[in-house]
Amino acid sequence: MTTTKIMLKEEDIPRQWYNLAADLPSPLQPLLGPDGKPITPDMLTAVFPMNLIEQEVSQERWIDIPEEVLKILYRWRPTPLRRAVYLEEHLKTPARIYYKDESLSPPGSHKPNTSVAQAWYNKQFGIERLTTETGAGQWGSALAFACKLLGLECKVFMVRISFNQKPFRKLMMQTWDANCVSSPSEETKAGRDILEKMPDTSGSLGIAISEAIEAAVTDETGKTRYSLGSVLNHVLLHQTIIGLEAKKQLESIGEKMPDVVIGCAGGGSNFAGLAFPFVLDKINGAEVDIIPVEPEACPTMTQGPFSYDHGDTAKMTPLLPMHSLGHTFVPPPIHAGGLRYHGMAPLVSQLIVEGLLKPRAYHQLKCYELALLWAHTEGAITAPETSHAVACAVDEAEKAREEGKEKVILLNYSGHGLMDLTGYESYLSGQLTDYSLPQEELSKYQEALKDLPKPDLKKTGKW
Ligand SMILES: Cc1ncc(COP(=O)(O)O)c(C=O)c1O
Questions:
Q1: Is residue 124 within 8 Å of 150, Cβ to Cβ?
Q2: CA distance 304 to 296
Q3: How close is the Cα of 385 to the center of ligand 1, in Å?
Q4: Could you tell me if residue 218 is inside a domain?
Q5: Which CATH number does the domain housing residue 283 bear?
Q6: Most-buried pick from 5, 183, 229, 281 (CB within 10 A)?
Q7: Residue 135 maps to a domain
Q8: Are 334 and 314 in contact (CB under 8 A)?
Q9: Which of 230, 381, 416, when mutated, tests ligand 1's pocket best, judged by the most ligand atoms within 8 Å of its CB?
Q10: Looking at residue 79, what is its pLDDT?
Q11: What is the pLDDT of residue 457?
Q12: Is the pTM value of this prediction over 0.85?
């Protein structure tokens, strides 16, 4: 009988995170301040605690995971690596499809791998309250969960469209005692300014980030910091436990190296978490296709230029070297709320520039169609974000069938969709449509990038 669940014992959990910054073929370019000059770590201290800033700029290849963080992660880690045999049978593919099941964490996604670590480091630093933004609500609920376990207060600014579409995510946050408000809100200057100009806006992650940063830096007690659920180096670092576990699990059943590694990418963290240990193999000569997947309606990697841009709409963050659609970008209201960010993690962006990754974009109708196929074969209902990775895996499995190749496909099953059923309802009742952004609209948003500094297109030309 084929093994469908590849488990690791608690004692086999990775005890260090992997920091790809140590192995990049060409170094990351620095974050820039408003004057266009590189910022120094101390300039970030109003926003993040120094212990996390140190991780953000670290060049150490391996960073120890604190025992107390591991103790919390044991609640659901190591997560199983599953083989999608029922989908394979349906597709009649010779490919073996493995998926790392990150949907098993208490909030239902990969996000607590970093929320627990971030809450712990903030607590060590004497911080009592964290603020954040959330799109789909997955990150907000993951931070609410972590703050509850570590005894911190938590305030979440939730993008308006998701706040309205996902009342249950808000209730999850409240169950873990967090305070969740719809963004843009009247509580911050950034929110009030947007509401005055665009009272009917559906909101965006860029706006919610501005609000959350403002709420942190204006707290006069000095005991509040901001926490980000994706994009930054330290967030991607905490997620690498996913790929490190997956490697051990594949090796334990004699699979040497996947041919294809896939993750959906909003800000890039679940993709990076699974992929970075395999990116190292690729840098060292392994043959593997590594594919971050995004929506056609928010085509950051496939259509956004590599540019310096702000991480938020009100330009409160430093300038990040990244693929970006422009910080004023307000995406169409697609149901994958977690894939609507205007930028992409600098580490992921740098790998795209290098040619180490092959980004791909999918329309939402195809993603829902294949999420249903997944539910009808594997059984589970996927998060709309995750369905982008599923769609790509199905395409790759069909390609393997056409080529008659026994490929090994590995994907990150970043979350379940049990709180996202309104999206399924819209799909099932025929109300969903696909969105492609017209070039004029993309160009309009990219005006915001025009006067910003341009990063070097650093590229070794090896890939
Ligand atoms: C289930 C799920 N997958 C993926 C993402 C995308 O985020 P990231 O690119 O940081 O993994 C989100 C974001 O909310 C999510 O909820």
A1: no
A2: 12
A3: 6
A4: no
A5: 3.40.50.1100
A6: 183
A7: no
A8: no
A9: 230
A10: 98
A11: 81
A12: yes
Residues framing ligand 1 (Cβ under 6 A): 109, 135-136, 138-139, 230, 264-271, 338-339, 383, 385-386, 414-415
Range of the domain at 320: 5-12+63-108+233-448
Q: What's the 138 CA to ligand 1 centre distance in angstroms?
A: 7
Rounded to whole angstroms, the Cα distance separating 186 from 193 reads 9
Number of domains in the chain: 1
- Is residue 419 within 8 A of residue 108, CB to CB? The reply is yes
> Which of 101, 110, 232 maximizes ligand 1 atoms within 8 Å of its Cβ, making it the mutation to test the pocket?
110
Residue 414 CA, ligand 1 centroid: distance in Å: 7
Pick the residue whose CA is nearest to atom 13 on ligand 1.
Answer: 338
Per the domain annotation, does 167 fall within a domain?
Answer: no
Residues paired with 132 in a beta bridge: 156
Averages of pLDDT over each 10 residues, the chain, 463 residues: 94 98 95 94 96 97 98 98 98 98 98 98 98 93 98 97 88 97 97 96 91 96 97 98 98 96 98 98 98 97 96 92 94 84 97 97 98 98 98 98 98 97 95 92 93 90 94
Classify residue 284 as exposed, middle or buried by CB count within 10 Å of its CB (0-12, 13-18, 19+).
exposed
Task: Tell me if 213 is assigned to some domain.
Answer: no
